[in-house]
């Protein structure tokens, strides 16, 4: 295994950890909220979550 392959394997391990994924999602959501305007996005988000919960079996 070359050092490049080893580095790629380590990186994929780090990326796939749950906490890192959660951090990435949180950062994405925060950036999205900041871009869209907080209140407008929150109302849309609440509507979509409510809709999602309603269509669940």
From TrEMBL:
Domain of life: Eukaryota
Record's protein name: LisH domain-containing protein
Species, as recorded: Geodia barretti (Barrett's horny sponge)
């Amino acid at each position: 295994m070359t050092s490049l392959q080893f580095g790629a394997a380590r990186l994929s391990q780090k990326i796939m950890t749950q906490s890192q994924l959660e951090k990435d999602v949180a950062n994405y959501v925060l950036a999205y909220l900041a871009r869209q305007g907080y209140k407008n996005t929150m109302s849309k988000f609440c509507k979509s979550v409510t809709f999602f919960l309603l269509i669940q079996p």
